[in-house]
Design brief:
The protein is of the alpha+beta class and 184 residues long. The chain has 5 helices and 5 strands. It folds into 2 domains: 46 residues, no CATH class; 106 residues, Alpha-Beta Plaits (2-Layer Sandwich). The strands form 2 sheets. A 3-stranded antiparallel β-sheet has the order 2-3-5. The protein has a two-stranded antiparallel sheet with strand order 1-4. The N and C termini lie far apart (59 Å).
């Protein structure tokens, strides 16, 4: 026997809720309250008062860059072995687990007898990517990472959002700066 379904009736709106005017006024009052609170606090901070109370701060991008946590998911990169070859063994785990289906790998034989396969091509379409990080978690070789701290991922064409193996192995070639501590 299926469980009983509980039907919840939505309550009837009163007159003031139907005309929306009080809710609009309430929203304007909340926004104005935040504005004047921050304006007052910033003015008092300038003269050295109430510095222990924090006020909202606007970051003036691109002159001032925001620092992101180290674990923040930013643009992808492929890691390299000591000999400079990609660490990827073309196991297709990242391609399989990707919910956006934006990773495309073509495998080939590796000349090293200790490694079975290597990627002939490893492409990511960042226009489709949802930055979930599943590809990083699924990789058994720690070959793909999202720790470049590169946030300016934009392009004028769809082709510019398509990252090939060469671009993923060398993220600093795109004119972006990779933090030295993240280079492995």
């Amino acid at each position: 026997m299926p469980p009983k379904t509980k039907i919840i009736k939505q309550r009837e709106l009163n007159f003031w809720e139907k005309i929306y005017i009080p809710e609009i006024i309430r929203g304007v009052m909340i926004t104005s309250g935040h504005f004047f609170k921050n304006l007052t606090l910033h003015a008092l901070h300038k003269i050295g008062l109430l510095r222990h109370i924090a006020a909202a701060v606007t970051i003036l991008y691109p002159e001032i860059k925001r620092r992101y946590p180290e674990r923040y998911r930013t643009r992808h990169r492929l890691t390299k072995r000591d000999d400079g070859t990609p660490r990827c063994v073309a196991c297709m785990m990242c391609e399989t687990v990707c919910p956006a289906k934006c990773i495309y790998i073509v495998a080939e034989e590796n000349p090293d007898p200790n490694i079975e396969k290597q990627p002939k091509s490893f492409d990511i379409d960042l226009g489709k990517c949802i930055y979930c990080g599943f590809c990083v978690e699924a990789c058994p070789e720690d070959a793909i990472r999202m720790d470049t701290q590169i946030m300016n991922i934009a392009g004028y064409t769809r082709e510019s959002m398509y990252y090939t193996k060469d671009r993923l192995l060398n993220p600093e070639r795109d004119g972006d700066v990779v933090l030295a501590k993240n280079k492995i």
